[in-house]
Amino acid sequence: MTDDPVLYDQRHGVAILTLNRPDQLNALNFALIDRFLVHLDAIERDEMVRAVIVTGAGDRAFSAGADIKEFAHSVAAGVEVALRDFVARGQTFTARIERFPKPLIGAVNGLAFGGGCEMLEAMPLAVAAATATFTKPEINLGFPPPFGGTQRLPRLIGRKRALEMILTGDPITAEDARQAGLVNRVVPKARLMAEAESLAQRIIEKAPVSVAASLAAVTRGINLSIDEGLAMEAAQFARAAATPAVTQGIARFLARSAGPRAAE
Fold first, then answer.
1. 208-263 adopts what CATH topology?
2. Mean pLDDT by 10-residue block, N- to C-terminus, for the chain (264 residues)?
3. Which residue is catalytic, options 118, 121, 195, 197?
4. Residue 70 annotated among the catalytic residues of the structure
5. What is the pLDDT of residue 1?
6. pTM of the full predicted structure?
7. How do the domains of the chain map onto residue ranges?
8. Does domain 6-204 have CATH number 3.90.226.10?
9. Does 118 participate in catalysis according to the annotation?
């Protein structure tokens, strides 16, 4: 593999981003985070790419979380530096993932610890290998999850489940993660990428504007009051309804519905 911290591949309209620091269990150092964001910027502009799969290099890890050696230098430089270089960068990273207008699918090939788990919390969809594990170990280092994990995880799996993970640092299995709602499905490791690609292909069959509007309505509306969320839903409907995707979709439906009657 190259020294690039994030590898890029594309096939059949799907970009595949691979976190590429296998010797460090794909830990999220500043260079990897910054490179990942550059890729997302390019993918957002590329109309040929309709979905993104994110996985980890090697057999052991999706990502072990933040690079603690690098984090230690930030902490040693003072709280203000740590907040600027570490926390703000990490929160910007997960917020960009959460708000990305094309579907991001995590393909969890191994351990997803700390910031690696926070990446998944921000992604709209995830598939896990049966051998994957998920942990919030920051408590053992003396601080709470800083990349959005104290906010997103409770919203995903409930306050009590989230607090048990955050306060104990105990790992959960892939099946535990599926039952809690952290991942969509669990498959044998050999089938992981095929399953993620199959999911991506089913989504990109849909109109791009409809996919983007659905992502925006859910992501932006989930933390609003129901009335504000309904207003967001209506705004995203209006965004899609103004495009040919709606008239074409209705025409296809009516043609299928009329088919048997026409034959009579």
1. Lyase 2-enoyl-coa Hydratase; Chain  A, domain 2 (1.10.12)
2. 90 97 97 98 97 97 94 90 92 97 98 98 98 97 96 96 98 98 98 98 95 95 93 94 87 80 48
3. 118
4. no
5. 57
6. 0.93
7. 6-204, 208-263
8. yes
9. yes
Q: Do domains 6-204 and 208-263 have the same CATH topology?
A: no
* The pLDDT value given to residue 258: 77
Catalytic residue among 98, 121, 138, 197: 138
Which burial class, exposed, middle or buried, applies to 239 when counting CB atoms under 10 A from its CB (0-12, 13-18, 19+)? Answer: middle
